[in-house]
Amino acid sequence: MGSLSQELPPLQAQDLKIKIKESCMVLPAQKTERRSMLLSNIDQVLNFSVETVHFFPLNKDFPPHIVAEKLRSALANILVTYDFMAGRLKVNPNTGRFEIDCNGAGAVFVVASSECTLDEIGDFVYPNPAFKDLIVKSLDGLPLEKEDHHDQPLCIVQVTSFKCGGFAIGLSTNHATFDGLSFKIFLDNLAALASDKPLVVIPCNDRHLLAARSPPRVTFDHPEMIKLNIPLGQDSNSNASIFDDTQEDLDFKIFRLTSDIIAHLKEKAKKALGGTQNSRYITGFNVVTAHVWRCKALSLGDDPERESRLLYAVDIRPRLNPPLPASYVGNAVLSAYTTAKCKELEDGPFSKLVEKVSEGAKRITDEYARSAIDWRGIQRVSTWRVLDFILVEIRVCKSGVSMGDA
C-alpha cells in the first residue's frame, strides 16, 4: 500500500491571488411563503458549514462571465423550489430546537478572479489549503447591505475565473440543510436551471417524514453514538474536536486503488468461502473498507485485546417502511458500526472482516433507524464523537477508488 500513496506539497493560500470583483444577495425569483421548517433529530446536530469546490476547464461557448450570469439567475430560480435555502437558521424559544425560518432573506453570490491558471494549481484531489479562498465563509468584508451581515446565510456561492478561461464554483451550505445525496440532487437541479432546462428531480422537502415518534421509543442499544453535553440550539462547531492532534499535525495521503487491486481484494475474501452463496456481501465497498480498517487499527501497534470500532455512513431512505422518497431533502444518513479486537483484525481471515463490515449496514432496519432518531432526541448525541473509531471515507472515481486518509 505504501507504494501507492501520493504526497504532494500543497500550495499556500496566497498563491491563488484571489480578487473579489462583486457580491450580492440573491433573492428567490418569486415570492415564497413565510414558514418555519422542522429539522429532524439527525439535522439538529449538524449545524456546521460544508464547503465544496468544483473545477471546470475552458469552454469557449461558456466564458466565466456568462457562467456567472447564468448561475446567478439559476440560483434565484432554485430558491423558489428550495425556499429554505434562502432562509435563516433560528432557535425556537419554546423547544430550544433549531428550525429554519423560510423568510426569503436570500443566498450570497460572489464573483471573483484569480491570476493563476488551472494547470498551475496541480492536483485537484489532494487536500490543498489554497482552495479555502475559492469559498467565501464570512460576510465580513463583502460590500453587502448592512442588514445582510446580521444573519449567516445557509447558502453561499462563489464563481472564480482563472487566467486560462477555466473557472471554479465554490459552495458553502449548512449541513443541517442537506446530506450528500440531497446535495447532489440540488447541484443537478441547479445545473439544469442554468442550462434553461426543467428540474431533474422534484425535491421532497417534508422533514416530518423523519420526525421522532411520540412518545419516543428507544428499542436498541446504540453504541455508534454517545451523549454530548451541548445545550439544545447551540452550534455544533463549539464542541471540542474529536482529535487530540491539531490540523497542522495531520499528514494527508491519497491511496489510489485500481480496479485490479479491488478485484484482488475480492478474490482474497472469496477464497476462504469456497465459492459459497455468502460471497454476495463481497462488494467493492466492503473489501476496501475492511482493508482500510485493518491497516488503520493495526497501525497503532498497541494491545491486541483492544477493541476497534468502525463507522460508516448508510443511506436510510430505502431502509424505512415505507421507504423515504429518493428525492428526500435533508439528512437521511445514519452510522453503521462494527467492532473487533485487534488480534482478530490481525489474525482472522480477511473474509470475516468483510462480513463484519456488511453486518453493520444490515443492522439498520426501519425500527433500528427510528430508535436511533428517538435516541438522538432524548440524549442530544452525535455519531462523530467516539473514543476509539475508524471513520472511512471512500470516493469512487473512474480509475478505481480514492481514499481520503488523515
Tell me the CATH architecture of the largest domain: 2-Layer Sandwich
Class by helix and strand content?
alpha+beta
CATH superfamily of the largest domain: Chloramphenicol acetyltransferase-like domain
CATH topology of the largest domain: Chloramphenicol Acetyltransferase
Low-pLDDT sequence parts: 238-243, 382-406
Count of separate DSSP helical elements: 9
Number of domains in the coordinates? 2
Strand content: 15-25%
List the helices and strands in order. EEEHEHEEEHEEHEEHHEEHHHEEEE
Q: How many DSSP E strands?
A: 17
Rg calculated over all Cα atoms: 23 Å
Read across the widest sheet, the strand sequence of neighbours is: 2-7-8-9-4
Helix content: 25-40%
CATH class (first level) name of the largest domain: Alpha Beta
Task: Explain briefly what this protein structure is.
The chain is of the alpha+beta class and 406 residues long. Helix content is 25%, strand content 23%. Belongs to the plant acyltransferase family.
Write the layout of secondary structure elements.
Elements: E1 5-6, E2 18-26, E3 35-38, H1 41-44, E4 49-56, H2 64-81, E5 88-91, E6 98-102, E7 107-114, H3 118-121, E8 155-161, E9 167-174, H4 180-194, E10 226-227, E11 253-258, H5 259-271, H6 284-298, E12 307-315, E13 333-341, H7 342-347, H8 350-362, H9 366-379, E14 381-382, E15 390-391, E16 394-397, E17 400-405
Parallel strand pairs: 7-8, 12-15
Antiparallel strand pairs: 1-11, 2-7, 3-6, 4-9, 5-6, 8-9, 10-14, 11-17, 12-13, 16-17
Helix pairs in contact: 2-4, 5-6, 5-8, 6-8
InterPro entries: CAT-like_dom_sf (IPR023213), Plant_Fungal_Acyltransferase (IPR050317)
Pfam families: Transferase (PF02458)
Family: Belongs to the plant acyltransferase family.
